[in-house]
Design a protein that fits this description.
The chain is built from three helices and three strands, in the order ααββαβ. The protein has 105 residues and is of the alpha+beta class. It is elongated.
């Protein structure tokens, strides 16, 4: 059995890969915080919970689905586990112009 800590590190790395792969050119310039993952493992299955930042503006629902599918497939491939759930907690939406203060006029 693979320890939960190891599966969590794999999931966090996969989330970083997904964000880099699926981000458009403007989003690629944004400095996003590293994703964090927690995992519950049991009898050959795993449930994943990811906390991450997403660049904005972008299709948030589409990007979330892409991250969930990519992470699920990647973790399953690398660990041999069946992934039953991938939940996302979007901590911040990071403007494509960076984190500087902006005013709406």
């Amino acid at each position: 059995m693979i320890p939960e800590k190891v599966v969590a590190r794999i999931a966090a790395r996969a989330a970083r890969e997904a964000l880099a792969t699926h981000a458009d050119a403007s989003a690629a310039r944004v400095k996003l915080a590293a994703p964090h993952a927690s995992v519950t493992v049991g009898s050959g299955t795993a449930r994943l919970a990811l906390t991450l930042d997403l660049p904005y503006p972008m299709d948030l629902a589409g990007a979330s689905r892409q991250v969930q599918h990519y992470v699920s497939d990647r973790v399953a491939h690398l660990t041999g586990m069946r992934i039953t759930e991938v939940t996302l907690d979007i901590e911040h939406l990071v403007p494509s112009g960076g984190l500087e203060d902006r005013r709406v006029q």
